[in-house]
Amino acid sequence: MALIHCIKQASTSGQNVTYYQPQALRYSFDNDLLSTEQRISYEEDGFLLIKGLVSGEDIDRFRVAFERICRREVQVPGLVVMRDVSIAKSEFVPNQKAISKLQDFQEEPELFRYCNLPQILNYVECFTGPNIMAMHTMLINKPPDTGNKTSRHPMHQDLHYFPFRPADRIVCSWTAMEKIHRQNGCLVVLPGSHHGTLKEHDYPEWEGGVNKMYHGVRDHDPNHPRVHLEMDKGDTVFFHPLLIHGSGMNQTQGFRKAISCHYASADCYYIDVRGTTQENIGQEVKEIAARKYAVNDVTFEDTWAVRGRLVQGDRTNL
């Protein structure tokens, strides 16, 4: 079989030539959408940025749906509304300034339409295969920092939150709803960190506090090269669940919005996280579910099974 070669500029005056056998590309499938260069980039870095993938019209519709929820004009079953820890105890005002994140919007038709966009699913299929489940949905409304640095999101791996495997058949789609840059807290990623294993996570010991469920990696190399993903409205990044990433403070006066969905192959399977590094998040999720729904026999896996929605193909397992 012929080898694929990729020439990359080295730090010296010469060039590096890396050779790949097609079957060695473990993180994506060859389905004629991704170029060889894109597949190799994802293989090496763990993320792939696609410019202008989602239309401005669609994003404006998502914004309107978000604002309706903020004004309490609609009630969405299962929706989790989160507020920044620095403003959570202040007097509640029913508008977007009080809400930092919506989570689990799978029962809101307009927002969930994002998860079904054909152009998104075409790319998702490159990483999951044809049977696709939408497992986790979020609309992030990063607020201007109040001065306590609580608008930061600690460096973490998304797989920490997921009791299903294999990791290589899970991918996140994350779309900028406006121009996102370093000043308003763009994503920061550690390229290549997806080649490692799932690390231990817990709440970082940050002055000013940490938002609920915002666990961070306990140890990662502070000297690892970082990439700040500055994005325009409609740009979408796809990334692996083991990629270490986070975001900085929002140092502007406006809110920084993004919408995202984690997808998994329907062929994935659930695991028992007891006795693993994920036991702490599993226990925390169970406690939250017990308080919210007054049930005590729910498992960590159960909390995910009820959220998952088939968006393409057959629901073969998950």
TrEMBL record:
Reactions catalysed according to its record: eicosanoyl-CoA + 2-oxoglutarate + O2 = 2-hydroxyeicosanoyl-CoA + succinate + CO2; heptadecanoyl-CoA + 2-oxoglutarate + O2 = 2-hydroxyheptadecanoyl-CoA + succinate + CO2; dodecanoyl-CoA + 2-oxoglutarate + O2 = 2-hydroxydodecanoyl-CoA + succinate + CO2; 3-methylnonanoyl-CoA + 2-oxoglutarate + O2 = 2-hydroxy-3-methylnonanoyl-CoA + succinate + CO2
One family name in Pfam for this protein: PhyH
SUPFAM superfamilies reported in the protein's UniProt record: Clavaminate synthase-like (SSF51197)
One GO CC term, this protein: peroxisome
Coiled coil (UniProt feature): none
Cofactor(s) of this protein: Fe cation; ATP; L-ascorbate
Swiss-Prot/TrEMBL keywords: Dioxygenase, Iron, Metal-binding, Oxidoreductase, Vitamin C
Listed GO MF terms: L-ascorbic acid binding; metal ion binding; phytanoyl-CoA dioxygenase activity
Entries under InterPro entries matching the protein: PhyH (IPR047128), Phytyl_CoA_dOase-like (IPR008775)
Enzyme category, top tier: oxidoreductase
Source taxon at top rank: Eukaryota
Family membership noted in the UniProt record: Belongs to the PhyH family.
The protein, known as: Phytanoyl-CoA dioxygenase, peroxisomal
Classification of source organism: Eukaryota, Metazoa, Chordata, Craniata, Vertebrata
